[in-house]
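Run: sequence + zinc ion -> complex structure.
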Amino acid sequence: MSDFLLAHAGLAEAGLFAAVLAVLWVMELRVSAVRAGAKLRHTLVNAVFMSAALPVQAVMTMACLAAAGFVTARHVGLLYLLPGADSAWVRIGLMFVVLDLLDYVYHAIMHNVPFLWRFHLVHHTDQTVDVSTTFREHPGETAIRNGFALLWIVLCGAPLEVVILRQAVAAAANIASHTSMRLPPGPARVLGWLFVTPNLHHAHHHFQLPATNCNYGDVFSVWDRLFGTYVEMPAAEVVFGLDTHMDAASVARAERLLI
Ligand SMILES: [Zn+2]
Ligand SMILES: [Zn+2]
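>> structure
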């Protein structure tokens, strides 16, 4: 079973990722006033980042899955110090929640360590957040992000099945949180009690502090509420981008941002 998951997880996840992106991209175009040509040009800039990061992501995904397989086989990691490490609630449920907390920690580190921020800011320079912003990531950040994921897997002893589940759910959550289609206030409030909504992640993409350093959550929004980094902003107040990089022509040049 483990070999089957290892061989097919990456492919299945990539297919799911591409299909959901395509459907949301078309839906965004239909409900927004943005013209197809402008949206396509914007998407192509972000696609440069995706093509640069894809080989790094593919290699690192295999490394994460191999590491999870290794720690599971050898019973390495904090999981095995817990009572009930054999129960699905602990192995899958608790571990999924712990990995989400560690993704919050990772995101906060990327914002607060100046050297790492230089990589992560590329994601934040997008002045038109939509589904394509999901894959606007410097390949250096792709390596760093997966390096942290490897560390968390080994530290926690994360089982292979939870790593696969986590990668699929986090990918879906990231796509959903970047879509330009905000939720109406009621559903946004109810869902936002537990999950990161597009409305909450849009505030994270606001061009000025302190909003940029809020809403670090990946799947669950509870960490931001717990650690005092939660913020809500109405759509009319959100301005996408970074106040240090507001020149629209510069942030549309992928090669400049990569350097
Ligand atoms: Zn960020
Ligand atoms: Zn984002």
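>> summary
The radius of gyration is 18 Å. DSSP finds eleven helices and no strands in the chain.
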